[in-house]
Fold:
Amino acid sequence: MKVTELTSFLEQIAPRDYQESYDNAGLITGDPALEITGVLVSLDCTEAILDEAISSGCNVIVSHHPIIFKGLKSLTGKTYVERVIIKAIRHNLAVYAIHTNLDSVHTGVNKRISDRLGLSGTMVLQPKAGLLRKLVTYCPQAHATQLREALFKAGAGNIGNYSSCSFNQDGVGTFLGNADTKPFAGEPGRLQHEPETRIETVFSAHDERKVILALLEHHPYEEVAYDIFRIENTHPQVGSGMVGWLAEPLQPADFLSILKRNMQTGMVRHTAFMQRPIRKVAVCGGSGSFLLQAAIAAGADAFVTADFKYHEFFDADGKILIADIGHFESEQFTSDLLVGMLSERFNTLRVEKTQQSTNPVFYF
Structure:
């Protein structure tokens, strides 16, 4: 199995189009044609992780956080980032990062946190806009069903929890082919009036190539008429954070006790307790202070995340309980998520979770 097969699968789960503008997800170093001997999964990519991969015979590292965020102007080994890249190249290791794109999908990092807290009815807290496209095309009425099915199979027609979504309207199309044409219906040089169906359906932007290929392959016309529109609707299954409901209301102290136990953290920084139970909970793995107002607007009683600054705690303003559990602690189960996904998809591939903690923060 080659690296490119692995990365193709990961980018089906979490398309790189979903990452934030500052991010650097994807294959950071390594040959896409490299034969994989084993995959080591970790939250971060450090020198110690590289040493573990080398000693265990794994030549691919899949980490959540990218080792490179900014451009490198030299590779002299003066920083840990440069040393990691030099060692990875020297030992022919492929390093892949799946970061904010995995944060953004509804089956990703925040779903894992939600599951550990027992949340139900979960939804993306702040859906992203501009990720959807609409296809409009026209085909002979007798071929509409076959074409729709091909488009759905290619990834079109999904809206939230619904699939095979489309709008269809019958009408009459006209075309006049010249002497160089071989029309599906009618004759060259004669105006044809053809009963047609107008098909409209939506798809994710990253599936555009697949959808267009399916359209061209299954449409009977020699020249296919179609339009693609960018739509600004938010994508209900892609975005930042997640919000859901506890099985039963909990007093703030009881909620924090469960949070500490289930997220395996020894400390929670939090705002003052409110005089109401915790029912609805918003979560965001990693640095989530930018979502505070979205959590309040969603009616959440508590917001579980990390990296809140001192003055940002005041922004809770008595409207929500902020629970800062630490960056590493909020994302530590991402490795389990990735190991499970890879092992299920590639049952003959050796996939290992790192044996060490990469948390750079210690408490005395």
